[in-house]
């Protein structure tokens, strides 16, 4: 078990080094931040001097080595755009993104799983067909369009939910939360639905097809033959066995939700890391972009690790190789 | 008697309280980008400086017509050619209660004039700033500088004791990855508003300064500035009433906002002039099929391009009427704009073809063109229209439109890697034409700091001499005559193709009253909520 975790961690370090090298090399093509940093009348000499001071003249490998060296010491540099330490900047945006992503994931699971179970159990029911149709919309419409549509309906026409921002956030130490105020909760609804809709439909379709498949298997027939109640058959036998792929997908999708929160955050002006990233790209704010991508890589690595460990918990077959427990 | 007097006071008080409750209002506005920092010398950029002007003040400020007026200084004069004297306003206090003094002015000017300040460009002529007595300041210049007062509008005054106590006596330095400068998130000025909350990239809250020295024209109780980057969301927030005012209006939504029940549009020409320039410096163009010579060195080719561009079509179709064509490199509102000279040569593609033939390009030629796609209103669309118009006279243009960070890195010095380009300029530091000559039209001379943004390398010794002379001319009439002469040289040479002033568009709820300034600054002191 420990060896397994260690092996995974080593792989993770390699993955992250590669990701950061690639992203760092890419940043060479986003343009020159200097012209965004200075006023129009700054002389060319002053621009060149600033470029030199920031080390932008140095070759990419050297800049990369310097960045990694500083990052290992906990120093991610200073944002060109905001003149603030990047570490603090990202940390201050992290809570917003995590809350939004978790809310979206919870929404996707709480709505997606029951819908999927229902569609699996009663595939021909009119409601199931409706769910299927709705899920098609969720899969095919791009996130930004869904977000704008929701804003148009709920903010502009009905005027019941805010169109942007995080409402009122409360600080708990370094963490800020919008979950404790009415304004914060209201502000969370539209972005969470927008972000979670795709995942919801994905989970629904997955649960539905898994359910359909599992319900045809022999052990379900045996279970019915044993005279177990429908409820027991459906939930402890069928649903439980569909959960392994659902956990994999949900876990991996959680990473995707956090990473792709970029678009939802931009549409709703949600003050999270994704928005910070987009603003930084436009400014060619390299330290922020590099740190963000490394952080996202780290998140994916951690999530993958957790998903692997969860398999152990859910699927007893994976535990068979452990001595002493086989019996 | 006494009782009566008391009752009168109470009545007056009640009236005052009741009156202010009925009138004063909070105000919420949004823009697509944030203010970079609260530090007044952090970045020399219009939105940054104009937002900070609500909190910090300079010695002088601009009124509704962009004319200079007294602010922290009450009188000012160029007493000798190289000496300016300013009388300071007495009894002014900073937001933290410390009194405003001559020492603060000397400190703030030096802070702005020293790297890593972003405002050092304003002080090329400055020799020394000194305190004469508690209410008098003198600026000694190295050369005659008739525009020093204009420049000082953007130099905000900080409290010296406050800055020193908080380790902010130098400007924010992004190259030092140490601690954040205190002045980045905190502010202590003398201005009409006090900083209440600063959440970078999210929102900034300011409230009126009850002890402001001037009489407030606004009736705001609190101002919340939010950043909403996405165009559609920003417009939606205005339509839904969550926001009272948006500063950057997406062009495609202008009509809708002007017709909606609760919103209105305010528009006028901006002082920035958008123009096209040619590489006239190289002996052979970098991006052209003409080898061994540079067609843009021939004034006939430049005139042909100018005459081939249908500016009315650009105005009506590309800009949907939201542009004002110009024939000069400066716009009304800038000192040195001459209305009589603002006449464009006629649009005439046939004459253009003939000019090209005379120059030896009967078959036309091929040229590269550089254009930003996120800097000016409809920038890429304008360039595409120009490409189509030039195609009619046989010029094949290969357009490269890209994001501003890439664009400026390519075309600006020291490389100036372009053959034909678009640029916009507003003399925002001095509001005077000389700035345009010095930066855009004088021959490139890095040592003398001339022509740094003369991307095409246009060079005419006559214009150079005039610009140098008028730089130090104190007599306004003589100076204006020289500016007019220089305009004429520019026009005779077809040095660039001025296109238009893009329209400034603001949108707000119907109950908001604001004053739109042509320099696109947005001082809150003119805002009224009804």
Mean pLDDT of chain B comes to 89
Taking all Cα atoms into account, the compactness measure Rg of chain B is 25 Å
> Uncertain runs of chain B with pLDDT below 50, 5 residues or more?
1-22
Under CATH, the topology of the largest domain in chain A is which? MetI-like fold
Number of domain modules of chain A: 2
> What is the beta-strand fraction of chain B?
15-25%
**Count of DSSP-assigned helices of chain B:** 15
Radius of gyration of chain A: 24 Å
Shape of chain B: globular
What report would you give on this structure?
Chain A has twelve helices and two strands; from the N terminus they run H-H-H-H-H-H-H-E-E-H-H-H-H-H. Chain A has helices at 2-27, 34-37, 44-53, 60-72, 86-121, 126-140, 143-157, 182-215, 218-225, 230-268, 273-283, 286-314; strands spanning 170-172, 175-177. Chain A is 73% helix and 2% strand. In chain A, strands 1-2 form a two-stranded antiparallel ribbon. Chain A folds into two domains: 2-72, no CATH class; 91-320, MetI-like fold, CATH 1.10.3720.10. With 327 residues, chain A is mostly helical. With 530 residues, chain B is α+β, with helices and mostly antiparallel strands. Chain B has helices spanning 2-23, 46-52, 102-113, 148-151, 160-165, 231-239, 254-259, 299-308, 311-318, 349-358, 379-391, 404-411, 433-441, 461-471, 476-493, and strands at 25-31, 60-62, 68-70, 73-80, 83-88, 126-133, 136-141, 193-199, 203-208, 220-227, 245-246, 263-278, 323-325, 366-372, 396-402, 420-425, 496-509, 512-513, 528-529. In chain B, strands 1, 8, 9, 10, 11, 12, 13, 16 and 17 form a nine-stranded mixed β-sheet that branches. A four-stranded antiparallel β-sheet of chain B has the order 4-5-7-6, with helices on one face. Chain B has a two-stranded antiparallel sheet with strand order 2-3. In chain B, a hairpin with a 2-residue loop joins strand 4 and strand 5. In chain B, helix 8 (299-308) runs antiparallel to helix 10 (349-358), helix 13 (433-441) packs antiparallel against helix 14 and helix 14 (461-471) packs antiparallel against helix 15 (476-493). The longest helix of chain B has 22 residues, at 2-23. Chain B starts with a helix and ends with a strand. Mean pLDDT of chain B is 89; it is low at 1-22.
